[in-house]
Amino acid sequence: MLLYLTDYLMQFDGAFRVFQYLTLRAILGALTALVISFIIGPVMIDKLTNNKIGQSIREDGPESHYAKSGTPTMGGTLILVAIAISTLLWADLENRYVWVVLFVTLGHGVIGFIDDYKKIKLGNSDGLSARTKFFWQSVIALSAGIYLYLTAQVPAETEFIVPFFKDVHISMGWTYVVLTYFVIVGTSNAVNLTDGLDGLAIMPTAMIAAALAIFAYLSGHYKFAEYLAIPFLPESGEVVVFCAAIVGAGLGFLWFNAYPAMVFMGDVGALALGAALGIVAVLVRQEIVLLIMGGVFVAETISVIIQVGSYKLRGKRVFLMAPIHHHYEKKGWPEPRIIVRFWIITVILVLVGLATLKLR
User: Fold this and answer.
1) Per residue in 120-158, pLDDT tens?
2) 346 burial class (0-12, 13-18, 19+ CB within 10 angstroms)?
3) Which positions ≥6 away from 26 have C-beta within 8 Å?
4) Backbone phi, then psi, for 92, in 5-degree steps?
């Protein structure tokens, strides 16, 4: 939106040309989202508290969580507001990728909002049924996949890229839609499973978003893409602004969500942020890299699958409690230790993911 204004002002003063630079707009996008979070955060927390929109704690959960009962939740709304406003202000709104990432992110946010609202405000502990939630996630993900497939402008947009191998570009055809679907829905639910401790999900999300911003910038620059042997995607550059907004909004939310949390993210934030990472990875053709960098999310998801499968097949549990972060809580690890160690693991995995840019 402000890009159009600076375009107009350039005819009066050439100094406004600086706002055409993607890197500057990304920085401003991150700062805008951060400031919005700081301004809106306290107001939102007060309103959530006054309306008694508090988190209910599982009776079979770790005892250390009982003190968190009643802590305001649905704080993910703050993140989405900051991301949306920042992206609309600083991104090129004529770029179709910008609207796709906003559609997928905010669409999943709506699903999470309804789920949280039914659980807390309406006293329905189950919220949306798993089938209903999955159905609407599928509708959004498939819509995005079909749209991107039909509007693809260069072959690289629908090719499957294998990191570490510069010449492995597999044309996917309609299976591109299937892959898009699984990446978006899978990542959305994986982040939601991880969001069980103060700050555990938001910091890895911000780190991965920052790394994906680098991939988006390099993929959108012909010379860098050619040098690094990654696909050149002409429209991917604007995704950098969106990723930067996630980083800014995420850090702003962490200010209030750090242990001991003043507010929880809720499904409205977790489902949306997971979907955001998924769609960005699809747009920059780095699904495998996302799998690497999101190793914490993957481990959390696998732990649940193993736990449920083992209990149904053998009547025994593998972990003391799933997802796996609760297993370590049951073993007596302090919550901050688990959180920081998972952050450290994510830093390592993000660096490995970035290393694939040169190891080809």
Assistant:
1) 866 655 678 889 999 999 999 999 999 999 999 999 999
2) buried
3) 90, 213, 217, 240, 241, 243, 244
4) -80, 110
Q: Report DSSP letters for 293-316, one per residue.
A: HTHHHHHHHHHHHHHHHHHHHHS-
Neighbour-count burial of 46, counting CB atoms closer than 10 A to its CB (0-12 exposed, 13-18 middle, 19+ buried): exposed
Spatial CA neighbour of 178 closest among 97, 271, 287, 290: 287
Q: What does the DSSP 8-state code read for residue 343?
A: H
The highest-confidence range among 22-26, 72-76, 276-280, 319-323, by mean pLDDT, is 276-280
Q: How far apart are CA 20 and CA 202, in angstroms?
A: 30
Average pLDDT for 107-119: 93
**3-class SS at 171?**
strand
Which among 15, 11, 22 has a CA at the least distance from the CA of 236?
22
CA distances from 41 to 31, 68, 78, 143, 244 (A): 15, 19, 7, 32, 19
What is the C-alpha to C-alpha distance for residues 6 and 276, in angstroms, rounded to an integer? 28
Query: Residue 282: what residue type?
Result: V
φ, ψ dihedrals at 72, nearest 5°: -55, 140
By residue count, the chain amounts to: 360
DSSP assignment of 73-118 equals --THHHHHHHHHHHHHHHS-TT-HHHHHHHHHHHHHHHHHHHHHHH
Least confident of 52-56, 249-253, 290-294: 52-56
- Residue 265 vs residue 165, higher pLDDT: 265
Does residue 323 have a cis bond before it (omega within 30 degrees)? Answer: yes
